[in-house]
Design brief:
Structural class: alpha+beta
Number of helices: 8
Radius of gyration: 25 Å
Largest sheet: 7 strands, antiparallel
Order of helices and strands: EEEEEEEHEEHHHHHHH
Strand content: 15-25%
Helix content: 40-55%
Number of domains: 2
Amino acid sequence: MVSLYRLQRRTLMFDTPPPIPADFRLAAELAPAAGLLGSDQPALTAHAGLGAVSIDFYSGRTGIVSDPPLPPVAFCLLTKPHQISIETGRIVVSGRIQELGEIPDIIGLVEHRVLPLLNLAILDTAAIVQVTGTIGDTPVQWAFHQVLPSARGVVHSEYSQELVAHLYRITRLGDEPRVFGALHYFATGCRLARVGNSLWEFAPEIILNLAKVLDTLFMGEERERDRPGSIDHVRAGLTRLGIPTDQIETTFVPMVVLRNQFGGGHHTLSIFDTDAMQPIYTFLQFAEDRFRWLLMLVTRKVADEGYALMLAKTEPSREKSRQLRQLVDTIVRGLPTLPPEFSRPSQPKEGQPAGA
C-alpha cells in the first residue's frame, strides 16, 4: 500500500541492457544515517546515558551526540526470493530476478514497507535519497521518469525592484488577515516542496495548503466548507478578480477537488492507476507558480488599488471557544511534567553573550 501521491513514475537507468535473468544488488542510501544506522551527529536515538544533549530553543529541536558513537546495526533478513540487509546508512536488497519488471516492486518494498516499520524504532526518520546497484555486471540507477525544470531566471535590477515593491506593500496592506493568512499557507506549501525528499513526497500536504489559500481568500465561516457547492465561493472570488473561467476551472478548482476528494485532506487507501496519475504530478509541479501569480495579483490589488476582500471574522465563536477549552482541559490531564531545564533557555553568565 502506498500513498496516492507517491506513485510518480520512475525508471531503471543503465548504459547497456542488463542480462535477464540475473543476480542483482540494489542499495538504497538513507538520510539521515542516524539512530540504528549509526551516527556521530546529534540524533534522536543514542546511547542511553552516554551523550551530550543538544537543544535548539529557536526550532524546538533536540538531539543527543553519543559518546562513543552509537555503532550501526548490521542485520540480514531472508525473504524469498530476496535478501534484505541493513548496513551503515543504507538498506541493501539482493537476489535474482527473472525480468526487469520486478524491480519497482522490490524498491517499493523497501520504501513503503521496510522504512515505515523501521521508523517505529528510529526516531531520526530516514528517507531514501538514492538507489544504485547492479543487475548482473551492469550498473543501474533508479530515477524519475521525467523531471521538468521550474527554476526562474531574473535580471538583478528588476528582481531588486520587485523585492522592494513587495516590502513597501506591508505598510499599505495593514493587518489584512485574509491576505496574510493566504500568504502563510502558500509559504508552508512551498516549504514542504523544498524540504521533501522529492517534489512529491509531501504532495497531499502541499495540496492541503494551496487549497487553504483559496479558502482563506474567498470562503466565509468554517461551516460553509462542508456545504454542497461551497466551491462556488472560490469560483466567485476568482471571477471578481477578473480571472477567466477556463483558467479558474483548470488551474484553481482542481486543487480544491484534490483536497476534498482525492486524499489531500483525508486519508485514502485506494490504489489508482500510475499512468492515469501522471498529469496530476505535472499539474502539482506547476501549481506553485500559478498560486504565486494569484497572490501577487491579490496583494497588488488590495495594497495598490483598494480592492476589498470579504470581511474576515477573526474572533472565534462562543461554541468554538468552549470546545477548545474542553479539549485543552482533556489534553492537560495526560501531559507529562517537564523538568524546569527544558522550559526555557539558560541565562547567560555575566559578561557572556547570549547563546554563547
